[in-house]
Amino acid sequence: MDLELLTQLTQAFGPPGYEEEIRAVIREVVTPLADSVWVDPLGSLVALKRGTGGGKKTVLAAHMDEIGVMVTYVDEKGYLRFTRMGGISPLMHIGGRVRFADGTVGVISVERREDSSKIPALEQLYIDVGASSREDAPVKVGDPAVFMRPLVAQGRRLISKTLDDRVGCYVLIETLRRLGPTPDDLYFLFSVQEEVTLSGARTSAYKIDPDMALAVDVTMTGDTPKALPMAVEMGKGPAIKVQDSGMIAHPAVRDLLIAAAERVGIPYQREILLGGSTDAAAMQLVRGGVPSGCVSIPCRYVHSPSEMVDVTDVEQTVALLSAALAPA
Amino acid sequence: MNTLELIQQLSAAVGPSGREAAVSDVLRPLWEPWSDELRTDAMGNLIALQRGNGAEPRPALMSAAHMDEIALIVTGIEKGFLHVHRIGGTDCRALLGLEVTVHGQEDLPGIIGTRPPHVLSADERGRIVPWEKLFVDVGLPHAEVVARVPIGAPVSIQRPLIRLQNDLVAGKALDNRASVAALTLALQQLRRREHAWDFYAVATVQEEVGAKGALTSAFGLNPTLAIALDVTFGKQADDNGGGTFPLDKGPTIGIGPNFHPQLVQRLRDVAKSEEIPTALEPLPGHSGTDAWSIQTAREGIPCGLLGIPLRYMHQPVETLALRDVERTARLLAAFTASLEADYRPRWEDEQ
């Protein structure tokens, strides 16, 4: 496990629509590994690894963007009000910190409330960058920020901000590093704006016009206290998507992944995710339709600043993709 | 024709989502003198092309403003009275006592009423009248209503435009005829200016039911860049503070993932050099406008958004400042004229 790379990936700045920093990190790593690399009109990064023949095109998509916040108002004392970029819950973030593109750090806190037993609304939260006035605040309306939390490796578990979906980006990069010759042309798509609209994967898949599309993303687990029942556990292997709230995986794609896992002896879990979806849902619907599926890395505490995954799950996801794409 | 007359004419035109032909009929003679080509596409979008003077193949800027309006649809007939439901985000709190037109076999005037307050329980009096208790009355007996009004007939809201103080106007369908007016003015202004790029003005259909006309017209035109025009929330007495913009202080420029950062910056720069006041409008995800449909057409089209601040959105008294319409037009025309023949937005880290 290349922890140095995963650290770089999880710590790079990249809220939806503002993926320059994370794109630069990934571009540097994939450029020597791919036959060509380009940026699409909305900002997605694509690395093409040419196949040995046949000319079939497969897309592997992991999103670069991360959940964050955007400043909507700076008050006269220099406190910031903000809105969500992607699915964030006030419960997860009070007392946390955010970082702006220029490095400015802010603390998230909450107004005094009459009834402190209730979860506050996002409108009751504010960010304090330590400014003494509106004029003194180093940020302005429209500036995006992301949550801060370092990567910690503890035994076989990894804890960090933004494992959703930088661990997917990591899996794509590792797959690109390890893969030998493959029959298909492989398009490694590092997409933008998954957390808000899936628009990056949608538009890049249109351009590529693929024969098959796979998303690589995190999924939730049912293995924590009083969790919503879900037959996916952290540490029990990659999850092969059957269905989520945005898509039914194409049965041929699903079975291709299952057959590959069984052939090389990788444990896997069948995934049904009730709340949430991935880039595959958008890629499935471009042009005349694209058979699409998804491989998920089981992840606890998705969309909190401390997401948790298992190293073996990550490594086996790379192995599963390699087996599915380069059949022996 | 001055801006007030233009807005008056466009506000009066009837164009529920999916039935916008009457609005394009009003627009065609207004756009024709300023267009090199003018056509209606398969979905009903009205498309004007004003060619640029750059070398071919020329890049193209598409500017879209939706011409459909929220309305009602007949869902049933009970004892001669029409049951209706919404087309788009029509607000049932704002319908009682309205005059409407029922577009059946022929247009019939009608009104929306409900039971008088005297006969309501205390509980009912405090509540919003739900859709199933709202009726359109056209004054005909049951059999004749059934014969003349098919289920599915659209029902449009009638409300003449009025002029308030300080060059504010109030009326129906200013969402988004105000932007259609701005687009019309921009076409006129651009004719008198040098511009290297081709300029497509598109009056889109079916925005209020999911920005569908913008999706197909952007696919069809495949422009290099696009600017969508729509209304945005104006400051009013009882708003909750954030996300609203004062009237008569200029259009808003959308900022967020729906918009290319370089276009946002360029719009701001052009506004500054033209002395047009603007405000930045943070939109952290899907903007809910034509801009999203356009941005995600084909392989992705870099997009910007201008918003005209408007109070009481989706009520028949939508209120805005005429000067904001004119400023939006000037900004759009100046932005278009500013595009150098070889300009393309690039990402910061692109070589």
Assign the CATH architecture of the largest domain in chain A.
Answer: 3-Layer(aba) Sandwich
- SSE succession of chain B: HHEEEEEEEHEHEEEHEHEEHEHEEH
Helical proportion of chain A, percent range: 10-25%
Provide the CATH architecture of the largest domain in chain B: 3-Layer(aba) Sandwich
At the first level of CATH, the class of the largest domain in chain B is: Alpha Beta
What name is given to the CATH topology of the largest domain in chain A? Aminopeptidase
Strand proportion of chain A: 25-35%
Shape of chain A: globular
Poorly predicted ranges of chain B: none
CATH H-level superfamily title of the largest domain in chain B? Zn peptidases
Distance between the termini of chain A: 24 Å
Total of helices of chain A: 7
Q: What is the helix/strand order of chain A?
A: HHEEEEEEEEEEEHEHEEEHEHEEH
* Integer count of domains of chain B: 2
Separation of termini of chain B?
A: 48 Å
What's the main sheet of chain A like?
A: 9 strands, mixed
Q: Helicity range of the residues of chain B? A: 25-40%
Which properties best describe this structure?
heterodimer; A: 328 residues; alpha+beta; Elongation Factor Tu (Ef-tu), domain 3; nine-stranded mixed β-sheet; six-stranded antiparallel β-sheet; 24% helix; B: 351 residues; Aminopeptidase; 2 domains; eight-stranded mixed β-sheet; 9 helices
Task: Give an overview in words.
The complex is a heterodimer of chains A (328) and B (351). In chain A, strands 1, 2, 3, 12, 13, 14, 15, 16 and 17 form a nine-stranded mixed beta sheet that branches. Chain A has a six-stranded antiparallel beta sheet with strand order 5-4-9-6-7-8, with no helix packed on it. The mean pLDDT of chain A is 96. In chain A, 24% of the residues lie in helices and 28% in strands. In chain A, helix 1 (3-11) crosses helix 3 (163-178) and helix 5 crosses helix 7 (311-325). Chain A has two domains: 3-66 and 161-325, Aminopeptidase (3-Layer(aba) Sandwich); 69-147, Beta Barrel (Elongation Factor Tu (Ef-tu), domain 3). Chain A has helices at 3-11, 20-30, 163-178, 199-208, 251-264, 279-283, 311-325, and strands at 36-39, 45-49, 57-63, 68-74, 80-85, 97-100, 105-110, 125-128, 144-147, 152-154, 157-160, 185-191, 212-219, 239-244, 247-248, 269-272, 292-298, 307-310. Chain A has 328 residues and is an alpha+beta fold. Chain A contains seven helices and 18 strands. Chain B has nine helices and 17 strands. Chain B starts with a helix and ends in a 13-residue tail after the last helix. With 351 residues, chain B is of the alpha+beta class. In chain B, a hairpin with a 4-residue loop joins strand 10 and strand 11. The mean pLDDT of chain B is 95. In chain B, the strands form three sheets. Chain B has an eight-stranded mixed beta sheet, with helices on both faces. Chain B has two domains: 3-69 and 172-338, 3-Layer(aba) Sandwich (Aminopeptidase); 71-157, Peptidase M42, domain 2 (Elongation Factor Tu (Ef-tu), domain 3, Beta Barrel), CATH 2.40.30. Chain B has helices spanning 3-12, 21-31, 122-125, 142-148, 174-191, 212-221, 261-273, 290-295, 322-338, and strands at 37-40, 46-50, 60-66, 71-78, 81-87, 99-103, 107-113, 135-137, 154-157, 162-163, 168-171, 198-204, 225-233, 252-255, 279-282, 303-310, 318-321. The interface between A and B is medium-sized, with 40 and 29 residues.
